[in-house]
Amino acid sequence: xxxxxxxxxxxxxxxxxxxxxxxxxxxxxxxxxxxxxxxxxxxxxxxxxxxxxxxxxxxxxxxxxxxxxxxxxxxxxxxxxxxxxxxxxxxxxxxxxxxxxxxxxxxxxxxxxxxxxxxxxxxxxxxxxxxxxxxxxxxxxxxxxxxxxxxxxxxxxxxxx
Length: 161
Prior knowledge:
Blueprint: H1 2-20, E1 52-60, E2 71-76, E3 82-86, E4 92-99, E5 104-110, E6 113-114, E7 118-120, E8 128-130, E9 133-134, H2 138-158
Parallel strand pairs: 1-8, 1-9
Antiparallel strand pairs: 1-4, 2-3, 2-5, 5-6, 5-7
């Protein structure tokens, strides 16, 4: 009798364990806890934000024409370090591997003329920030003045003496 009782208890214990560790087919339900090994998917891993960011842009004149060979200056506002980049044929510039926790100032210089300074803030969450810089060249102003001066003498010629 004890042998039959021991066999029955062992059988019930084995059946209970087997049902508890059973892997259920299909997607896991979200209504309650899952029993078993390997059931469900692991929780998604959080992606770390990028440690670095980059700054790109184009140096342009007032007519939106690219200005090649302009020197672009990037100043770290905290450490006061400066980096430079000579604009390419299409006016483009780039500064890779910038800290996301630092503020930067950027401006361009060409033929003695400077663009307005723009700021890249540490609060800007873009990984690839784009800032275009505009330079108004004095040569354009001189050409306009020369054209106006050429018109004035012609007007005097047309007037009777």
